[in-house]
Design goal:
By secondary structure, this protein is mainly beta. It folds into 5 domains: about 180 residues, Galactose-binding domain-like (Jelly Rolls); about 100 residues, Sandwich (Immunoglobulin-like); about 240 residues, TIM Barrel (Alpha-Beta Barrel); about 100 residues, Immunoglobulins (Immunoglobulin-like, Sandwich); about 260 residues, Beta-galactosidase, Chain A, domain 5, CATH 2.70.98.10. The protein contains 11 helices and 62 strands. The chain has a 9-stranded antiparallel β-sheet with strand order 48-49-50-51-62-58-57-54-55, with no helix packed on it. The longest helix is centred in the middle third of the chain and has 15 residues. It is elongated, with a radius of gyration of 32 Å. Pfam families: Glyco_hydro_2, Glyco_hydro_2_C, Glyco_hydro_2_N.
Amino acid sequence: MKYFCLLLLNLSLALSTYAQPSSQKQIQYLSGRDNRATVKWDFYCTGGRKSGFWTTIAVPSCWEQQGFGLYNYGRDYKTYGKNFRFADEQGLYKHSFTVPAGWRGRRVEIVFEGSMTDTEVKVNGQVAGAVHQGAFYRFKYDITDKLKFGEANLLEVKVSKMSAEPSVNNAERLADYWVFGGIFRPVYLQSYPQQYAENIAIDARANGTFTLRANVRNVKQPAQLQADILDAAGQTVGTARAEVAADDTVARLTATLKNPRPWTAETPTLYRARLTLRTGPGTQYQTTESFGFRTIEVRRGKGIYVNGTQVKMKGTNRHSWWPETGRTLNDSIQLMDVKLLKEMNMNAVRMSHYPPDAEFLHLCDSLGLYVLDELAGWQKYYSTKAGTPLVRSMVEKDQNHPSIIFWDNGNEGGTNKELDAIFYQYDLTKRPVIHPHHRPGNAASGIDCNHYEDYYSTQKILADSLIYMPTEFLHSQDDGGGGAGLADMWELHWKSQRSGGGFLWAMVDEGIVRTDQRGIIDVNGVNAPDGLMGPHREKEGSFFAIREIFSPIRIGLKELPAKFNGTLEVENRYHFTNLSQCFFQWELVNYRKPSDPFAGSITGKKSRIKSPALAPLATGKLKLELPKDWKNYDALVLSAYDPFKNLVYKWTWKTGGNAKLLDGVLALEAKAKAAVEVTDSDSTLTLKANNIAVTFNKSNGHISGVKGNNGDKLSFTNGPVLVAGTAAFTGLKHHAEPDGEAVEATYTGDLKAVRWKMHANGWLRMEYEYALTGDYPFTGISFTYPENFVIGAKWLGQGPYRVWKNRLQGVSTNVWENANNNTQTAAAPWIYPEFKGYFADIAWMEMNTVEGKFLIASPDKGLFIRRFNFYGLSGVKPQPGLPTGDISFLDAIPPIGTKLGLNIDNNPKNLGANSETNHLSGAPIKRTLYFYFGLPPTDSKPQPYIAPVKDDLF
């Protein structure tokens, strides 16, 4: 509803100028509004593709995405050497427009929301004003005296991709992101009556104090300025007035509202100020501004406080980005991004590395996100002369957004400290100015924002006197960082008084659709695949891990205890929300069997339950009130919803062990007591039952051949091989047992025993034991199977995403299914979940291949299955290293590191305890596996497909 109301407000600006009252600002768009609704202007490109002739171009747009000019990534000068020169083409625009005759006698300005980079504007052959320099900032010109009202007018714009001002290029063109040219945000005319107010700034504090400052124009006689404070229902709840003398240029109004509803990211309550300028009984001008009552404090050595409550930022860095259109977006993309951030249970976002579209900030206001609004300056800064008007533009455009709690003065050395004072000069609320940096010693406003510290250096910084809030950490290139290592890092921040939280790098892979390369999506090597999501917001595994780790409703229980009584310990990690404002739903589910053609689970019973009254940061008990037969189901699923009915997180617990889940899957007792056929030769031993044949090599104890019950060969061979430690084969013997044929392989070394049994119905049982002492990246056994034969897999276990030792979060137990894909995280074709990887806590997994199906099951908990060859981080040598073989059955898996700040060889140990390698004490590790090569028998009928039941929660 909040977004809908805001949308109506924005749409009202788009109404025909003839329908707007003469006492209000009137808008006429010359361009389109976004990347979907564009307007064709005449266009001439001076260099690169489609250059040297007049044609047309969509406005707004990045001209490279329209087929003009040349592409550059901002770090290309590093790639191509000192003699490299950026593409510096210019774009010449022409557009004819008519101004309503009714605007005669009014002030008319032309407004550019963003143009890359130097922009010269002419109207009817006359220069509108000084050339604007700086790509990401709103600028405008008074063109009243240059217009022909009621007639055609000619707009001419010259845009230079590279600036004539060196510091502008240093700050925003030589950066770690794509460099574009063009008018990439809307262009419009705005018309004012002769007497009006502009540059309206509001400072509304949580205690109800309200201050409004406005520049008044052309007031020639005493006047009154009145601000009516309107709540969400449009009711007037307060009024401020000020007398304006003739020729005054600045007016200031104050009031105090009793018991305002404060704005926070959890309670994004907005008000509007309806400002009216009157002379005598007549209204000269009227406008409205949205705002929120909130107070920001940085208490040295204590933390960041919003409305008197300490808050910690759970955020990421967000580029304004869409693959087909670059930095030209639309409202749907802006809304999607805010919703995705909220879905990850984030409460904050940093603008990297320039101010965003106005609509994004409106949505952060209305849906609730804390914002770090950033002046461009990637690792070099604007000169004071060039930067001063850009800071002013940024502040005047964005200052009334309650979501903005900090101004960022550049990034990683891109800070001109002389500009700090300019922020404070123009910002009525005097928000703190911070300095995001990649080196220590650059704190500002009592906050150290140093980037890419590891877990242990973070501990030291948090023990210092300053507040620590890394504006970049856990760099998410490929599948590293992001959610990997976050559990330890976030607990460290959460429990540290001086932590202000932090911002992961980054939200999306900045992949651009190359119009010069047949539409491929280019991430510029390892420069831009840094996202938690792909370019079109394809969700990676880290997305879901972050959602669990950042959940403001925390339930730490991993397994249901044997005497579970239906009560869970729950922690409220909201800053302002009592848990009584949230609600929960439990479900009791049964999992589908391998013989069932469908994946997923079937809900048997469910119920919505009342949440306990639990204050922010408190811990208490949640009573589920389960039915007496709850243990008859396979699993308990608990969902938590926030006060706005959004899912916060969903937890799943099995009601028993894997042996219970395999009931009806393992049919070990053959209906016909047929004996297992044994063929023993000098070199091989073959067991056959129920048309399934398995052959062992007597020289090494490995499976050397398999035939499925369809009679076809299955290329599942060359195992078991111990993936860590030593194993020297010493012999193979077999004997009959009442329930099948047993085969025992003996070894010396770390592999202590392997025992096989073929049951009469074709199930092959494998029991093995090994013991290791020392540090190992992984432990367990492997087999080989050709990856190119695999069609897909279905499994009961955690999923659907792969895991790492230091990223076990974000997955849940269910029956999952996935087709084989070759996705390498953060690279085309961005098909998620990845098929290859480590998959956790597997009860059974069915591989579907061109040779037929085969099934693996284990009654033991904690089984990881590795599927085929993959890597987590690219580099000279992709990392981490893999076990031998193709399919591995593991008891321990490796952690993954990050691109920056921690190591050279992807050694993630500095990310915390869960990122250390596996420490083995020499204790025996035992596991049982079952194999069935073909379509398995079952003692239960396939369950029919049941359509999802519509949720009745709301």
